[in-house]
């Protein structure tokens, strides 16, 4: 029984929360649901007590509000999948504001109704963010000001002293300022954290020297493209490319000269490839190419184009020109051949190209 209640409560709170959404949006949806259920319980209890005291107008308004809170919870799910939470948040906020205005006009129970208006600033800022939240609070403050100070006595359903009204508004504005400042600091820290986490994520996936995707990132691309090509029954190819005699570049131009060569070569590869092709740094002076929708014949044409461009490229480090060549191995990822097997095959051909004199692409198609 307890477990069932817990599960139902959990389902209520997580309605509309999806993995595909950002944590910020999921948190907002969670709070909308939490606010709906807490509001629903409190307002229903107040409605019941108003019925018992035979204050029927208040009881009906509170019942309507609790129904509105339940509707807002359902809106998270039934309106557009990715914007429904905004509709639900707005609906909930405007219903809350209407209820607060009603409590201010009527005084609620023993003229304590206006005390509830302090709920508005945190809810408005949380649901709408800083800008929209402040706009909504501004609108609400104007309405409350009119109701408290400008409504003719003949229409007002209750009376408050001038001191109470002015202090109520002043404390409401103070709370708005503090809640606004809190929301501002919270969203700034969230933005900063998001920037840092995106930066860490980018760094974890790219090679710090060449800025090409690293081995880990390439593995993900390979797995994704392999399953995509399997589904679409398309071919894809992989190529491994190793710089010839790279050790001698390091020996002649120093380690920095070697690094310059790797950076320059990476740019040359990037400039030569089509948009959907991916090149990554696979190891020291070894690069891997992923060529979606490309058979081994087309891969060979591309490999030769790359090889010739490298051979004819004018490398120059600290004023000293030098030339460079690469050896390339190709393998088509056939349906019965796993990506790992294709990479081993490409590796095998690349070393064969080295043995056969370097500056070569194998196999020849
Ligand atoms: N500057 C620099 N050198 C690197 C980097 N990673 C690997 N190397 C160097 O690459 C060289 C690779 O040497 P070898 O494995 O003997 O291969 P090679 O000289 O290219 O000869 P072949 O592959 O047989 O043509 C070594 O000197 C490594 O120190 C790097 O990030 N920067």
TrEMBL record:
Q: PROSITE patterns recorded for this chain?
A: GGDEF
Out of the domains of life, which is the source? Bacteria
Catalytic activity, EC:
2.7.7.65
The kind of enzyme this is, by top-level EC class, is transferase
GGDEF domain: residues covered: 234-365
Sorted UniProt keywords:
Membrane, Transmembrane, Transmembrane helix
Which reaction is this enzyme known to catalyze? 2 GTP = 3',3'-c-di-GMP + 2 diphosphate
Which SMART domains has this protein been placed in?
Answer: GGDEF
Span-the-membrane segments of this chain are 29-50, 56-76, 88-107, 113-130, 137-162, 168-185
Tell me the protein's name: diguanylate cyclase
- Organism classification: Bacteria, Pseudomonadati, Pseudomonadota, Gammaproteobacteria, Alteromonadales
């Amino acid at each position: 029984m307890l477990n069932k209640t817990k599960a139902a409560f959990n389902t209520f709170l997580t309605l509309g929360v999806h993995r595909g959404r950002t944590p910020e949006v999921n948190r907002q949806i969670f709070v909308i649901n939490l606010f709906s259920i807490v509001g629903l319980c409190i307002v229903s209890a107040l409605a019941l007590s108003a019925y018992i005291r035979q204050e029927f107008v208040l009881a009906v308004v509170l019942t309507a509000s609790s129904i509105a809170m339940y509707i807002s919870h359902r809106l998270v799910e039934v309106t557009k999948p990715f914007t429904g939470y905004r509709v639900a948040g707005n609906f909930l906020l405007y219903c809350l504001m209407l209820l607060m205005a009603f409590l201010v006009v009527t005084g609620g129970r023993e003229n304590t109704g206006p005390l509830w208006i302090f709920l508005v600033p945190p809810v408005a800022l949380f649901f709408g963010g800083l800008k929209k939240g402040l706009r909504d609070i501004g609108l609400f403050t104007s309405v409350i000001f009119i109701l408290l100070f400008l409504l003719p006595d003949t229409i007002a359903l209750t009376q408050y002293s001038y001191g109470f009204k002015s202090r109520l508004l002043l404390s409401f504005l103070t709370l708005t300022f503090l809640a606004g400042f809190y929301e501002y600091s919270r969203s700034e820290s969230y933005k900063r954290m998001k920037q840092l986490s995106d930066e860490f994520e980018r760094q974890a996936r790219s090679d710090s020297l060449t800025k090409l995707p690293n081995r880990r990132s390439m593995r993900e691309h390979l797995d994704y493209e392999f399953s995509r090509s399997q589904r679409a029954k398309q071919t894809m190819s992989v190529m491994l490319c190793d710089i010839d005699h790279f050790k001698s570049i390091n020996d002649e131009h120093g380690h920095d000269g070697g690094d310059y060569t790797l950076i320059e070569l990476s740019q040359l590869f990037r400039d030569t490839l089509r948009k959907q092709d991916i090149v990554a740094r696979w190891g020291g002076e070894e690069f891997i190419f992923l060529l979606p929708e490309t058979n081994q014949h087309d891969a060979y044409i591309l490999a030769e184009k790359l090889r010739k461009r490298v051979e004819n490229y004018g490398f120059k480090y600290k004023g000293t020109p030098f030339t460079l060549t690469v050896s390339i191995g190709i393998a088509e990822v056939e349906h019965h051949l796993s990506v790992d097997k294709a990479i081993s095959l490409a590796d095998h051909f690349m070393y064969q190209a080295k043995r056969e004199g370097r500056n070569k692409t194998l196999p020849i198609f």
